[in-house]
């Protein structure tokens, strides 16, 4: 594709030429485990589907293009992608993670990689002073989430990446909440970008996957080795579904963002709501940084209620259009209580989430219907 091609154009076409044999416009689902060879060591680029599959190759090329990465690698889940990146580190090395890291990320670092020698500290990465305080001579990686899950904290990617680079460390950014449509970490100085493609990239709550993108050839070589050696790769149908979702990423994200803005306006004015977290609010601590590094402020909204944890649990059971479920980023609106669901693994740790916090993934339904559902749920809460 020409460098001048726009984001939405690349989302539809990058890595996806029409099939040369049949002219099929969509990349075929290569549902095969192995590939015929012309002779020993002579093949058409593919040998065994764990090592490579043409459907996966197309998705990897497309996502790499969207993130401005020279190399892209798809995995069976977002956690598998994160695990591969963490395997770049050796026992004895040290990583700094956010104090409000996603529960699965914290669990992977603390419970899986920690026991085999990876050291870590958590810091509020919205301040370089906090990062400096957590820094050690053996620190070789900083892990960033921005916006974070579920507190929607905003980290200045360029500032953190520059700080780490000056000290010989890599910066990894989990870009799941923003997507490459709203934010491109590699262009801001990060070394590695990761995604749960299960979320906005797939966008339809029908497939699980992960992605890592890099520009450094040596890091890419190692990730390619880990992808093949550990084998946590997506199947061709998973890749096809994710690729289909990516084609509409731009238009979906525009709607997610505009719907979220309307939902925030409603929640901020409701007497039962004590706080609303969304980077688009002028009083959000990270608002100015978000304006600088994001196209818009995203479709995720978190809020707390006057009744605390009991009110939060009751509210999410009263919505009718909005589905009570884990995950996020689908076309449908999803609601949950992180402390009791997605972030239960961090209970009792320094990363523990406020039990009264509600996380809302604002879908692309008619926005008046979303707001009305929240209204009736809040009114029912008050009446109950």
Chain-wise SSE layout:
Layout lengths: L6 H7 L40 H14 L3 E5 L2 H9 L7 E5 L4 H11 L5 E5 L4 H7 L4 E7 L11 H10 L3 E5 L4 H4 L9 E5 L13 E5 L2 H14 L5 H11 L2 H20 L4 E5 L9 H7 L6 E6 L2 H9 L6 E2 L9 E3 L20 E5 L5 H17 L1
Parallel strand pairs: 2-3, 2-4, 4-5, 5-6, 10-11
Antiparallel strand pairs: 1-7, 6-7, 8-9, 9-12, 11-12
Helix pairs in contact: 1-2, 2-9, 3-4, 10-13, 12-13
List the main descriptive attributes of the protein structure presented here.
36% helix; 5-stranded mixed β-sheet; 7-stranded mixed β-sheet; 384 residues; 13 helices; 2 domains; globular; Aspartate Aminotransferase, domain 1; Aspartate Aminotransferase, domain 2; alpha/beta
Structural class: alpha/beta
Proportion of residues in β-strands: 15-25%
| Secondary structure: helix percent | 25-40%
User: Which sequence of strands runs across the widest sheet?
Assistant: 1-7-6-5-4-2-3
What would you call the shape?
A: globular
According to CATH, the fold-level topology of the largest domain is Aspartate Aminotransferase, domain 2
**Number of extended strands:** 12
Main beta-sheet strand count, sense and barrel state: 7 strands, mixed
Number of helices: 13
Provide the CATH architecture of the largest domain. 3-Layer(aba) Sandwich
Average pLDDT level: 94
Low-confidence stretches: none
Q: Overview of this structure, please?
A:
It is a single chain. This protein is an alpha/beta fold and 384 residues long. It folds into two domains: 7-246, 3-Layer(aba) Sandwich (Aspartate Aminotransferase, domain 2); 249-383, Alpha-Beta Complex (Aspartate Aminotransferase, domain 1), CATH 3.90.1150. The chain contains 13 helices and twelve strands. The strands form two sheets. Strands 1-7-6-5-4-2-3 form a seven-stranded mixed beta sheet, sandwiched between helices. The radius of gyration is 21 Å and the shape is globular.
């Amino acid at each position: 594709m020409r460098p001048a091609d726009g984001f939405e154009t690349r989302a539809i076409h990058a890595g996806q030429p029409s099939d040369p044999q049949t002219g099929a416009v969509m990349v075929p689902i290569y549902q095969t485990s192995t590939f015929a060879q012309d002779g020993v060591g002579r093949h058409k680029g593919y040998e065994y589907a764990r090592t490579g599959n043409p459907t996966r190759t197309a998705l990897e090329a497309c996502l790499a293009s969207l993130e401005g990465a020279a190399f892209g690698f798809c995995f069976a889940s977002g956690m598998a992608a994160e695990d591969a990146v963490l395997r770049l580190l050796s026992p004895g090395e040290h990583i700094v993670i956010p104090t409000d890291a996603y529960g699965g990320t914290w669990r992977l670092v603390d419970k899986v990689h920690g026991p085999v020698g990876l050291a870590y500290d958590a810091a509020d990465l919205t301040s370089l002073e906090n990062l400096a305080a957590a820094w050690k001579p053996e620190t070789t990686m900083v892990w960033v989430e921005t916006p974070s899950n579920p507190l929607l904290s905003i980290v200045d990617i360029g500032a953190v990446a520059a700080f780490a680079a000056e000290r010989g460390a890599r910066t990894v950014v989990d870009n799941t909440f923003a997507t490459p449509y709203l934010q491109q970490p590699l262009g801001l100085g990060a070394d590695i970008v990761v995604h749960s493609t299960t979320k906005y990239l797939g966008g339809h709550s029908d497939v699980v996957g992960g992605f890592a993108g890099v520009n450094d050839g040596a890091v890419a070589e190692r990730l390619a080795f880990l992808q093949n050696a550990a084998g946590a790769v997506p199947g061709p149908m998973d890749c096809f579904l994710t690729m289909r979702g990516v084609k509409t990423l731009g238009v979906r994200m525009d709607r997610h963002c505009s719907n979220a803005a309307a939902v925030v306006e409603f929640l901020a004015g409701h007497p039962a709501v004590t706080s609303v977290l969304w980077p688009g609010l002028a009083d959000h601590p990270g608002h100015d940084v978000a304006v600088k590094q994001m196209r818009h402020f995203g479709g995720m909204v978190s809020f707390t209620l006057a009744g605390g944890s009991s009110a939060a649990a009751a509210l999410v059971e009263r919505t009718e259009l909005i589905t009570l479920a884990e995950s996020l980023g689908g076309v449908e609106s999803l609601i949950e209580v992180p402390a009791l669901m997605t972030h239960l693994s961090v209970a009792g740790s320094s990363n523990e989430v406020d039990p009264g916090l509600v996380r809302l993934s604002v879908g692309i339904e008619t926005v008046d219907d979303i707001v009305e559902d929240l209204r009736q749920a809040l009114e029912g809460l008050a009446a109950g």
